[in-house]
From TrEMBL:
Limits of the Leucine-binding protein domain: 29-363
Protein name: ABC-transporter substrate-binding protein
Keywords for this protein: Amino-acid transport, Signal, Transport
Domain of life according to the entry: Bacteria
Family that this chain belongs to: Belongs to the leucine-binding protein family.
CDD domains recorded: PBP1_ABC_RPA1789-like (cd06333)
Pfam families assigned: Peripla_BP_6
UniProt record, GO biological process: amino acid transport
Species of the source: Salinisphaera shabanensis E1L3A
UniProt xrefs under InterPro entries: BCAA_transport (IPR051010), Leu-bd (IPR028081), Leu_Ile_Val-bd (IPR000709), Peripla_BP_I (IPR028082)
Species lineage: Bacteria, Pseudomonadati, Pseudomonadota, Gammaproteobacteria, Salinisphaerales
Entry keyword annotation includes Transmembrane helix: no
Hydrolase in keyword set: no
Amino acid sequence: MRIKTLGAALLLALASAGTAAFAAPDGKPIKVGTFLSVTGPASFLGDPELKTLEHWVGKINDEGGVLGRPLELVHYDTSGNAGKARTFVKRLINSDQVDVIVGGSTTGTTMAAVPLVERSGVAMISLAGGIPIIDPVKKWVFKTPHTDRMAARKILKDMQSRGFTKVGLISGSGGFGQSGRTQTLEAASEFDIEIVADETYNNSDTDMTAQLTNIANTQGVQAVLNFGFGQGPAIVTRNYKQLGLELPFYQSHGVASEKYIELAGDAAEGVRLPAGALLVASKLDDDDPQKKVALAYKQEYENAFNESISQFGGHAYDGLMIAVEAIEAAGSADRGAIRDAIENTEGFVGVGGVFNMSPDDHMGLDLSAFRMLEIHDGTWTLID
């Protein structure tokens, strides 16, 4: 029997609880393990993720806990290092004996942990974007972010609608960038698009003008896509403007945060990218099921931390709430029961979309969960 989860209702209840009296949680804590890239090159992912998890775990405990028991968040900072991820996940499973894991931040750290969670039998809900995390399906591994495959298809569909048939591609050399590159190359022909230039850069590079010049000099190129995350895409964006390139420019969902706009400055003007509804929550139609939950998360986060939300913190919220509702549906903190309940998540309205998981789909989102955005006057504009 599939469970009907109530993500929007739960978030709104937490947001509106105010000073209502709740019974203090009691008994043995239910342990939620997490390993995030809070420092290092992927800190723009891990920092809002950890803030979200810590804040909402505290909030849930203030309002009675889960099954009357307190949640305990056990966290380690991987700094984006896959070796550290393996060490910390082994510790979470064997020493800390967590009941469920929400993390990691990147595709690389997540994939490093996959063999451990598969052998140990503890469910992990990743906050990373790479399609290899859940394709092929792995029994104990789930994820909340939209995949790079979805992003590639959303971008290519938008390019097709604008009549572009020849596109230049530049991508980072890390796991996310290379997976996104592969997905773009594989899907392009479905949209009658030819990738006429294919350039890459290292995550430590500080200038990509040579690669962009090669793309600009490619005959017939009509638009350019950069697939990457971290500071790299912001550097590419600034170099793009410095070269005076006027071709339509796309980024992936790997830059779906205010930090990208801050780093790229006015060079980001006109850039298009796919992202979840959170970044444009106030601009959604009133009958959009995500509007209330996204606005509630945005208000709560920004009030708590006095900083703008990012899509990445939203992925952590979705991961935590899916885990919490699975524990409630299972009626216990049994690892196997939690796994089964996560797999049966249905109708969960999160900030990233409406999740419907199954034994064949451990993410539960389709292309409708993505919105196409364009940056104007230093902020997000909803295109589609």
